[in-house]
Amino acid sequence: MCVALPGIVVETGDGEATVDFNGNRVKARSGLVEVKNGDHVLVHAGCILQKVSSSEAEEMTELMKEMGGFGF
Prior knowledge:
By secondary structure, this protein is of the alpha+beta class. It is 19% helix and 44% strand.
């Protein structure tokens, strides 16, 4: 199973963005989607796949917490 995780863009740069996942900051490729600081995004395998609304990101995070995994 493949899972894309929701996070928030905290820094952007040359084809990459730093994404915050509940305090864990990770570099992700941003070439597929144009992003800016504060955007909620889905990341899979180090690539930002799409932007999502803050409510969608919150809902996904809550579901992952209920499933008991993914560091949430």
